[in-house]
Design brief:
The chain has about 180 residues and is mainly alpha-helical. It has two domains: about 90 residues, Alpha Horseshoe (Serine Threonine Protein Phosphatase 5, Tetratricopeptide repeat), CATH 1.25.40.10; about 100 residues, Serine Threonine Protein Phosphatase 5, Tetratricopeptide repeat (Alpha Horseshoe). About 75% of the residues lie in helices and about 0% in strands. It is built from eleven helices and no strands.
Length: about 180
């Protein structure tokens, strides 16, 4: 058991709370979030954190809500805390990357997306956001490679198709057409 996992388990044990006790609270918070009731979702996550201050899921949820409300600084804080508690959750890294992107910290966003892809290479959401970040950083050839990886796994991914086409249309390949590029790589 890693030290982080031990710390989480020990906090539950000392308070007499099990993950099963918090599961309905997580579901309620998620239900509120998905229904667009951000205040209720935030209140539910705060209640969870009152019971267990080291609940990474609640911190991640609060970070997502902060992002939807444009509170990038507090979102970054909550998401970084969630990742410190659960380093191996790729979704936390994707959300942190999105927060960094919204904060125009593209280099940090790139690192977050890279980590998410490293943790779960099949995560198409992580790959897509990573590719968009690369495109915004001017690393178009790398971005095209990521879009192609996505399309190999999900040929109908409209976002990847659209951005791949835009990449070619913008002339990222020295004026070569999409067909020339496809047949020379």
């Amino acid at each position: 058991m890693t030290q982080n996992n031990w710390a989480v388990k020990s906090s539950y044990m000392t308070k007499g709370v099990s993950r099963h006790t918090l599961a309905p609270m997580h579901q309620l918070a998620s239900h509120h979030y998905l229904a667009g009731r951000m205040n209720e979702a935030m209140d539910a996550y705060r209640q969870i954190l009152q019971i267990d201050a080291s609940d990474a899921t609640a911190l991640h949820g609060m970070g997502q809500i902060d992002l939807t409300e444009g509170q990038t600084k507090s979102a970054l804080d909550a998401l970084e805390k969630a990742i410190a508690l659960d380093l191996n959750n790729p979704e936390y890294h994707v959300t942190l990357g999105i927060a960094h992107s919204m904060n125009n910290s593209l280099t940090l966003a790139k690192l977050s997306f890279q980590e998410a892809v490293r943790l779960k290479p099949s995560n198409l959401n992580a790959r897509y956001n990573f590719a968009l970040c690369l495109l915004n950083l001017g690393q178009s050839k790398s971005a095209v490679g990521e879009f192609r990886r996505i399309l190999k796994k999900q040929a109908g991914n409209t976002g990847a198709l659209l951005h791949l086409g835009l990449s070619y249309r913008r002339g990222f390949f020295d004026g070569r057409t999409i067909f020339q590029e496809m047949f020379t790589t």
